UniProtKB/TrEMBL annotation:
This is C6 transcription factor. GO terms for biological process: DNA-templated transcription; positive regulation of transcription from RNA polymerase II promoter by galactose. The lineage of its organism: Eukaryota, Fungi, Dikarya, Ascomycota, Pezizomycotina. Keywords: DNA-binding, Nucleus, Transcription, Transcription regulation. Pfam families: Fungal_trans (PF04082). It comes from the Eukaryota. InterPro entries: Fungal_SecMet_Regulators (IPR051127), XnlR_reg_dom (IPR007219).
């Protein structure tokens, strides 16, 4: 098969693409190296050659389906155009969306033929795609303005950015000790940054990058924030990259941790995962997993190390769920104590102490919640090892979900009163205090975990309706009815998530709301929207949902999700396309659109560029590329461009075009031209 005509055409196309990349028409990134010898740092991020005034970074092979240019994002929530060798397992939204699409297709077949056409599901996400088309993925490296990696913004701007970081990420992921960090920062300012560790300066730039990305208080358009944050990010990379490959230190671990958090807000799925792997190995090499390595250190340093390790653990569980891959940190590796309150000096104001104590309790609650998430991945998703048995007895799945739900409820009942979960109608959602903001964020994380725990039962119902011969409106077997009853918890959590975000953003501006980081909010809303779409599929199959908590029309929740996302950020293409995806399905539920399957496929088509557009893009001059939108010029870790066929669309379902247009959907007769 590998030597057939199709394989030869694919190889020929890729060879042509590689040759095209070497032609003079392709421009490269030129980043000025400072006098500290940064060329070596940048070289390790590229295969480029050194120039007199900097480094020339080669464009990655965009036509390689294994390339990071496969157009995924940092949380694996995007449409991609072609087949990729990347693995996405059972807990990922990619697999869940395949269940949705198959069930939608089954509805169409049932309506046409009166009985479902059985579909053989092997549980794999692989597909036989059409021959790869290099012309479908034109990549260009626009020349960016030269920047000095040793430069820093004015002192007033640095002070503002640092405060924005600790008010945002610093409170939600409190592993940096603010007094110690600010003390070092003040010392560096006093010496005009002439006496500063290279790695610490990189860490400082990374905090600036994160703050620039998420700070919406000034209502600056997203593309301006992204451009600004990219400059800080690249400075941090230039300062720390070589050291991160050659040395082990707490600065390096924290730099990598912030880099992973940063990449989650971009479209760099593969880079996010790979850098996270480096982060985990570096943390293990430093001994952060063991309290023995803390001996001889002062209490504050011990606490910083524990918090850093536990934050990495929580991040590992989130990425494991989002990508559907085995976690890098087994639960057995968590043997360090939970965070303790910071040790304060006597001159610290009381309100700062109170906020720090609440932040510590928030981190403790988050760690315990993600331990439950880890057990769910282990017991309900087979550790994402790809061994999930599609014929698993529903009673086993029900028992597992019931046990995990009890754990989740015990966790919620053990929260301190000032961090207790919020209801959608609670006034706490709208009172902007530090404790209320952490309550809202913790509530959204709780519902995320609840959806994860109960979604296997929704999937079991969808699989039954898809694979079995079931007529619309026919009664369900008792075991499926039980699974559906348990799946209501999943639907309720999805509805509450959307209601909470919608209510907050209907009253408060995004930059002053209690929702936290914008792309995590987007993650939760879209994750919930997929579940609501799953509920609509059940209704289309004639499955009644006799539950007061889920009695509102599907259309109303999808409409609220769209409205919330439209208010979440300004001029943000990621959020815009996410809302656009949901809007199509919302219109379908309101009777304004085509079939649900048609809507999903049309969204993918609208996000894709036409062949004529591709041809025109190939002929643009360098001057035209100077004016590219931020989505096309916003580079990340080692790849010099993020040009996307789908405009960086972050639909939580990462769907391959070949999966949307495979024999399963032949009845819709879509034309790709």
């Amino acid at each position: 098969m590998g030597d057939g005509p199709h394989a030869l055409r694919v190889r020929h196309s890729r060879l042509n693409a590689c040759m095209n990349r070497l032609t003079p028409r392709q421009t490269s990134w030129n980043i000025e190296a400072d006098s500290a010898g940064l060329s070596g740092d940048l070289l390790s991020f590229s295969t480029g050659r050194q120039l007199q005034d900097g480094i020339q970074l080669d464009t990655p092979n965009a036509e390689d389906p294994g390339s990071d240019e496969a157009k995924t994002d940092g949380l694996a929530i995007i449409f991609v155009d072609e087949q990729t060798p990347a693995f996405y397992g059972e807990s990922s939204n990619i697999v869940f969306t395949r269940y949705l699409l198959r069930a939608i297709s089954a509805v169409s077949k049932v309506k046409q033929h009166g009985v479902a056409v059985p579909f053989k599901d092997n549980g794999s996400i692989k597909c036989n795609s059409a021959p790869f088309s290099p012309q479908h993925s034109p990549q260009h490296s626009p020349k960016m303005p030269q920047l000095s990696v040793s430069a820093l913004p004015p002192e007033k701007e640095m002070d503002t950015l640092l405060s924005a970081y600790f008010d945002g990420y610093g409170s939600q992921f409190p592993f940096l000790h603010e007094p110690t960090f600010r003390e070092m920062y003040d010392e560096c300012k006093a010496s005009s940054f002439n006496k500063v560790r290279r790695t610490w300066l990189g860490l400082l730039n990374m905090t600036f990058a994160l703050a620039s990305n998420i700070d919406q208080s000034a209502e600056v358009p997203a593309k301006e924030r992204f451009r600004k944050s990219y400059i800080f990010f690249m400075r941090a990379v230039s300062l720390c990259n070589e050291s991160s490959m050659q040395t082990v230190s707490l600065d390096i671990v924290q730099y990598l941790l912030l880099a992973v958090l940063y990449l989650q807000g971009t479209q760099r799925s593969i880079q996010t995962w790979n850098v996270h792997g480096i982060l985990v190995r570096t943390a293990l090499a430093l001994g952060l997993h063991s309290e023995q390595s803390e001996r001889g250190l002062d209490p504050i340093q011990q606490e910083i190390r524990r918090r850093t390790w536990l934050t990495i653990y929580c991040l590992d569980k989130l990425l494991s769920v989002a990508f559907g891959r085995p976690p890098s940190i087994p639960d057995e590796y968590i043997v360090v104590r939970l965070p303790s309150p910071w040790i304060f000096t006597t001159d610290m104001p009381s309100h700062q102490r109170d906020n720090a104590d609440i932040s510590t309790e928030f981190l403790n609650a988050t760690v315990r919640l993600y331990q439950i998430v880890g057990r769910s991945v282990s017991t309900q998703y087979g550790m994402n090892l790809g061994l999930t048995d599609q014929d698993t007895d529903e009673s086993t799945a029900i028992q597992a979900a019931s046990a995990m739900r009890q754990e989740l409820r015990r966790w919620a009942s053990g929260l301190p009163p000032h961090l207790s979960l919020c209801e959608a109608g609670s006034e706490s959602l709208l009172k902007r205090t530090d404790s209320n903001r952490l309550r809202v964020i913790l509530t959204l994380r709780y519902h995320f975990a609840s959806i994860l725990i109960h979604r296997p039962l929704l999937c079991a119902t969808l699989r039954y309706l898809t694979v079995k011969e079931a007529s619309v409106g026919s009664g369900l077997p008792y075991r499926i009815q039980l699974a559906m009853a348990e799946a209501h918890e999943c639907i309720r959590s999805a509805e509450k998530t959307i209601e909470i975000v919608h209510r907050v953003l209907s009253v408060q501006k995004a930059g002053y709301s209690n929702l936290g980081v914008w792309f995590f909010t987007m993650f939760y809303v879209f994750n919930s929207s997929l579940v609501i779409i799953g509920r609509s599929v059940l209704v289309q199959h004639g499955v009644c949902i006799d539950d007061e908590a889920t009695s509102s029309p599907v259309h109303s929740f999808l409409t609220k999700a769209v409205e919330a996302l439209e208010k979440l950020d300004k001029d943000n293409r990621l959020v815009y396309n996410c809302a656009k995806f949901i809007r199509h399905l919302s219109e379908r539920q309101g009777g304004q659109g085509e079939s649900a399957s048609t809507c999903i496929c049309l969204i993918a088509l609208e996000a894709d560029m036409t062949e004529a557009h591709h041809a025109a893009a190939e002929q643009r001059t360098q001057a035209e590329y100077q004016g590219l939108d931020y989505e096309q010029t916003f580079p990340s870790f080692e790849v010099p461009a993020l040009t996307g066929l789908v405009d960086n669309d972050p639909g939580m379902a990462q769907l391959f075009k070949a999966q949307l247009f495979n024999p399963l959907f032949e009845e819709f007769n879509f034309n790709l031209e």
